[in-house]
Write a structure and sequence with these properties.
Largest sheet: 10 strands, antiparallel
Order of helices and strands: HHEEHHHHEEHHHHEEEEEEEEEEE
Pfam families: DUF4216 (PF13952)
Strand content: 15-25%
Low-confidence stretches: 399-404, 424-434, 447-471
Number of helices: 10
Helix content: 25-40%
Number of strands: 15
InterPro entries: DUF4216
């Protein structure tokens, strides 16, 4: 991180000598850059306009600016060749810190770095840190250590308990805070919430498969899109009938399922804040009175990633003896159509169109399925009302819940699409600091240029059934 800070300091000292770029960059940092609470310092307070520089930046602040802001900050403020050089260095450090990389990415990193003499070692400091971490496990419980100190947004790590075993969506860890307000769900909201919770509960998947098998037999020429729309309309009602008939036949039905099929209460509690898995979420209404931004969320569904903002944080309660409850976010989603609503450039910067919304109604998401992001405007010189904003994915702080015994890495999970540098003919990548002959010099052989790495999705697809469907007339899917 110290090497990264040295790069950042040198870049900033050079770039801020350009007066026009400096003024626009400082205005953008002071007005438009908002990170979630605890993610970084208030960068606007670090701007010293009189001296024309940053003051009071910590190493972590330099790390955030280097990897999260510089890849796109100077897109309009500097000439294209200068901007691409700055963005390339930033993308290099970001790829260097990624938690998982491809062999092609490793080759790109190797090609893009110069071979120089090693002048320092981190072994001594590493041994001291490991010794401290090991020794603190032998301190009495009342001794406050860094690892024992509760995080700022601690969720307490306690799961909800019931007198029967219930699905995981009703036992997720999280802490609601702030003054709650009661509100009534509309009929449309209640219906959408019920079908969303049913289709996202693993213990209900077996019933969903039975429903889809029946509908595929009944509507043998229907497309998958038509069957999916049919499921959204009829699955909740079919589920109530199917479970009720099973109970009438004397089948054993879990208590939680008997309550879940009738849907949650119409009256829900709306909270202003929610802490879970190291994230601290707030509603978009609180942004007006805060310098931090904690309402941005994203959710992955297969190969699709949805970006949005939290409108409400709702505690959902089911009537009955079991008392099922869970936390959901009511969100406003952006259009996730590639190149229309979402784009990713060569430096790995993802942008969304802030004025284009998801074309269909699907506002709810389980709090356990939401990851936090923030949206930052481009520093524009022209076209200041440009609706495209960048997406910055955030890493959770403190406790991370998971089923793996291995600790989850805190680095980003993806790397950029930056290819190996091609125009380096005039640059000597070997610097010889010794006079010990040719054997002491590491020579870099010419390697073919490695292009961008693309991972092709599975191409298997199932075609329609063109066989004879019999003489019976097939019913049409009604609305």
């Amino acid at each position: 991180m110290h090497i990264e800070k040295n790069f950042f300091d040198n870049l900033m000292n050079t770039i801020l000598n350009v007066q026009a770029a400096k003024d626009a960059f400082f205005d953008w940092i002071s007005k438009d850059v908002e990170f979630p609470d605890g993610y970084a310092s208030n960068l606007g307070n670090c701007v010293d306009r009189r001296e024309g520089k940053f003051t009071g930046l910590k190493s972590h602040d330099c790390h955030v600016m280097m990897q999260r802001l510089l890849p796109f900050a100077f897109k309009e403020l500097l000439p294209k060749n200068v901007y691409e050089a700055v963005a390339g260095i930033s993308a290099f450090f970001r790829d260097l810190c990624t938690r998982s990389v491809t062999p092609e990415c490793i080759e790109n990193l190797k090609t893009n770095i110069a071979v120089i003499k090693v002048e320092g070692s981190i072994v001594a400091q590493f041994i001291r840190a490991e010794t401290s971490n090991f020794a603190e496990h032998y301190f009495p419980g009342e001794v406050q250590t860094k690892s024992r100190k509760p995080a700022r947004h601690d969720d307490r790590g306690e799961r909800a308990t019931y007198y029967v075993t219930v699905p995981d969506i009703f036992t997720d860890v999280g802490r609601l805070s702030g003054k709650p307000k009661n509100r009534q769900l509309t009929e449309e909201e209640h219906s959408q919430l019920q079908i969303y919770l049913l289709t996202n509960c693993e213990d209900v998947f077996q019933y969903e498969r039975i429903f889809m098998a029946e509908k595929r037999f009944e509507y043998r020429h229907a497309t998958e899109e038509e069957l999916e729309a049919l499921k959204m309309r009829e699955f909740a009602g079919w589920m109530r009938t199917y479970v009720s008939d099973g109970m009438a036949r004397g089948e054993t039905i879990n208590d939680w399922l008997r309550e879940m099929i009738w849907g949650p209460k119409y009256v829900v509690k709306s909270y202003p804040r929610f802490a879970s898995r190291g994230y601290a979420f707030t509603t978009s209404k609180r942004r007006r009175s805060s310098k931090t931004y904690n309402a941005g969320v994203c959710s992955a569904a297969g190969d699709d990633v949805y970006y949005g903002n939290i409108r409400e944080i709702l505690e959902i309660v089911y009537p009955g003896m079991v008392g099922l409850r869970c936390t959901v976010f009511y969100c406003d989603w952006y259009d996730n159509t590639p190149d229309r609503g979402v784009t990713t450039d060569a430096f790995g910067v993802t942008s969304v169109h802030s004025r284009r919304k998801l074309p269909y109604y699907d506002p709810f998401i389980l709090a356990s399925q939401a990851d936090q992001v923030c949206y930052i405007k481009y520093p524009r010189v022209t076209n200041r009302d440009d609706p495209w904003v960048t997406v910055t994915a955030l890493n959770p702080r403190s406790r991370v819940q998971g089923s793996s015994e291995l600790e989850d890495p805190l680095q980003p999970n993806t790397s950029g699409n930056l290819s190996a540098a091609g125009d380096v003919a005039a640059v000597d990548l070997v610097i010889d600091f010794t006079d010990f002959g040719d054997e002491a010099v590491v020579h870099v052989e010419d390697e073919p240029e490695i292009g961008e790495f693309h991972q092709d999705p599975d191409s298997d697809s199932s075609g329609g059934d063109d066989g004879d469907s019999g003489s019976e007339d097939e019913p049409e899917i009604g609305e």
